[in-house]
Structure formats: structure tokens, C-alpha cells
Amino acid sequence: MTPAMTPAMTPAAPAVLETREAGFAYRGGRPVLEGVSVAVPAGRSLALVGESGAGKTTLLRLLLGLARPTTGQVLFDGAPLVPRDRAFRRAVQPVFQDPYSSLDPRQRVARIVSEPLRSLGLLSPGSRAARRDEAGERVAEALRSVGLPADAAGRYPHEFSGGQRQRIAIARALVCRPRVLLADEPVSALDVSTRARVVELLAGLAESHALTVVVVSHDLSVVAALCARTAVIERGRVVEQGDTADVLGAPAHPYTRRLIDSVPRLSRASRLR
């Protein structure tokens, strides 16, 4: 009789994205990242945290294929990442920090959100009218998923608030039905109440769309609310990583403890248990 599988025997989810001993340095400069190994398991959201200049955004750029490691590897589904590969570009989509600069002010929302469908060749073959109708349906679906009405498609970015603009940016990422969202400080440009609503949206989308979300953030309350796993980066090196509840609730590294103690909402009296 086969014994029941205990939690310790449960196999880990395969990594969608992974870095192995990855390093990065600009030509003639000191290393920005050194020996970074992190894995993004399918269906488990990951936070990259650390002070400004720690290397978080550079690591995100490696995972997006926007930069290549000078040492080590970046893997997608277990194979070396090929940034121009259409399967990768469809599966992994970015959400940038500033919703005011990431949307083209000259384009209507429908054009902005449908851009990945055109650039990745995701519309079905057929007449121009049929392709236009398909794009319209996909845009409406993406806007609904982020809580915006269908008539938002005919408007311009300046007609929306900051939180609504970030929802449009998220809709643009979702329109090609990706597996992974890579978000660089996705709520830092928003006010506190709007920030909470966008975090709730991302958490809901991760569940309803079976998305894996990788978030760069200096806000540990966002990390605690959104991400199951956390990697802490100090001066280009990962000094601690694991389940968020463990990393924030019982940090093992002095740098992690300093980060937590610097945030009033996550002081010793209110740490995760």
C-alpha cells in the first residue's frame, strides 16, 4: 500500500521563471547583481524587496528579458530565456510603476489595451472587420476583469484617475491572457486608499486568472497582502527568501530585520505570525 504523501513529501510547483547564480553589471561598472538565484513557482506570487538601489528592478528586467545577465542564467519553463520568443512574450507581461507615463496620451484606451494582440500576432486570421471585432471583444473582457466599464475603451488616459490608469495598464497586460505578471512598484505612485484597491485587484486576478505575480516593492504591507513568497535583496545579493509569513514574521537576516523595523506598520508588535 502506498503511504499518504505528507506535506514534506509534496513536490514543489515547477518554476515558470528562474535565475541561477545570475549577475549583472553595466560595462565598466561595479556589479548590480551577484549570484542571484530565485525561482518563481507556477501559481505562487513572489515579492522582491529591499532598499532603493538594492537591485530589485534590475532583477525584474532580467526576468522580463529586457537585460541579459553578465553571469549565470535566466530560465523560462526550465530552458534558457529567449526574449524574442513569442511564447515567452505572451506568457510574461509587465505592469510598470507610473500609470501617468506608461500609457500613450495620444491613443484611446482600446488601442492601448489591444496593442499586445497586434504586436504578438494573437488575433485570428480573417478579414479586417473580423479582427477588429475580436480585438474589441478581448479589450472589453480585459477592462471588465479590472473593474472598468466597456465605454472606457473609447476614452483617453487623461480622462481617468491614477488608480483607473493603473487598471488600464493591468488590462493591457491581461489582454493576451498571460501566465505571469511582473509588476515594478505597481502602486507606489497612487494614494493610500487607491493603493489598497489596486492591491486587492491584483490579488483577486491572481486567484481568478491563475496568475503568477512577481512584485518589486519597498512597501512591506503590499508584500504581506499580495505575495506568498518573498526574496530580500541587499546590495545586489539575495540575503533571505522563503514564505512571506516566515520572512516577515521571523526574519533570519539582520538586513531583513532592519527593513521591517523601519516600517511602523510592521514593527515588532504587528509582525505576521
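(the above was protein one; protein two follows)
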Amino acid sequence: MTNIFFPEIENKILLADDILIITHRQPDGDACGAALALFLYCQTLGKQPVVFSVDAPPSYFDFLPAIKVFTANSINLLKNWDLIFVLDCGDWGHTGLDQQTIKQLTSSMVINIDHHFTNVNFGSINLVNHRVSSTCEIIFDFFRQIKLPISKNIAICLLCGLVTDTGVFSNAATSLSAIQSAGQLLARGANIKLIVDKISRNKTIGGLQLWGLLFSRLIINTDFNCAYTYIRESELTANNIHEEEIDGFVNFLNNMAGINWAAFFRINSDHTKISLRTARHNVDVSVLASFFGGGGHKKAAGFTLAYPLKDVSQFFIDNYTILKKLGD
């Protein structure tokens, strides 16, 4: 992919002293991989950017080079930046930052790099391509265009993003360009077995028991042709289980036969996060996510309700019309 913004972005990085790299709350493999690949590139230029997320990366990404540079300390944001990258975020809201901080940051040059078609183009420069598998694939294309010698460490970070966002090259995000990019990253030293082992084989006994609880609550709603279940924050806390232990559960539900889509509700003390997945070619879960102010892809999307659900089944009753359209 050739992009008119690539030379301009390279030039702005070369001229910048103070660089901030931000990604979304609860960073996944694509967010972590993209941020770290960009950080490592800046390091080759003698720069030391700050890498920020409001939430720490899950522990199973500890194998990624330079993962410890991530900070969740918002004090680090309170300065005048020469250049700010916002990665894998459809809008500023996905960063989880408060409005005052966002207002301050937008006074700087902001480069928005993302692959979600719901992206609202909030940057000074918007490098957005929803036809690719991941933000990591966009950054890989950028590195190739500027002829960066891609190191093994950068290749590992980028391949992690491709692997996670394609479901190990099994979901609808898997494209010819994603496969070709992965092959080139493997040729540069990335170890796909290591990545798959780390992101897949990360469940403790407690985590698997928690999955058992989620399965026991699983409901098939025939009105909407969907499957759903839920977990409450208090249950995670009571069992001393980190939220990352349930990562991937909604993807697993997507393996069910005979449903159009799956939903997973994480009910916290002051909000409810809903993750949506589908394997059906004629179902677009991003439509539902956008209706509630969220975003994502046709096959994987999500949104947040600004209140804790007391009864998940009531959500389906209250939103019958929009959910029925998705289920048909």
C-alpha cells in the first residue's frame, strides 16, 4: 500500500523531539504491537517517546520487546508535545482519557493511525485504512515505504498485531495482504509459534473455572438468533481473577453453530462493556455497536453503556427493534 501521508509522517517524526504514542484502553495485541513497533522505530532515530494507555497491557503480552515502556500515568501527558500518535482508536473516546486532557493534547500535531471503518478522522493527519487487517499492517506498510530495515524485535511486535486481529488468520480480517505481510515478518525473524503460544495458552485453573461459570449462564435467544452471557466485576474481584483471564471468551462463542452473532457483557460498578462477534458474512455487528456509540468491524465490534446492567435479559427486551434487525 502506497500512501501520500507516509513521507510527511516520516518527516514529522524526524523533526520531533517530544513524541507521545497513545493507544486504546484495555490494549490488545494490535494496539500493543503497533505502539511498540513505532516506539522501536523512534529509538533507532535516537528518540525516546512516551507510550501511554490508561490500562496496562495484559501480562500475556510480556514477551513483546520493550513492553515495559507502557505507562498508565497520565501525569506524563501534561506537557507540550511536538507529535502525538493515536493508534487503533476510532475516536478520542477509545483512549479512555478525560475531556480536559484530550483538549490539551489536540493542541499538538496528532497523527491518527487506524483500520476501523468507524474512525471519525479526528487527527491532524488521518492514516486510516479499513481494508487492511490491523493497525500493525498499516505501520508495516509505512516502514516498507520509508525503506526501514525492520529488525527482529519490530517484526515480532507487528506480527503479534496481525495474528491477534485475524484470529490467527482465521477470521474475516484475513486477507491476501495480511498473509503476505505475515510472511515477510516471518522472514525478518518473527516467531509465530511463540506469539500463538503466548496469546492462546494463558489460562489459569481459576480462569478456566470462570469460563465454566460463563458457560453455565449462556443463553440462546431465538428471537435474535444470538448467544450471550455475562460476568460481573465483583465476581472477578471475589475470585482474584484478572479481567484478562476472560479475554477471548466471546471469540470462542463465535464457534457456535446455528447463531448469527454472540455477545459478552462485562458488568462493572459504573458501566457495562459489551463485546460482539459474528462469523456470518451477512451480519454486521458494527451497526449495533455504532447505534450505542461504539465501533469496530463488521465481524468484531463493541460498545459501552454508561451504567451497570442489573438484568442482561432486560437489555434485549428494551432494544428489541434494533436487535431484531441484526438477527434477521
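Reviewer note on protein two: The chain has a mean pLDDT of 92.
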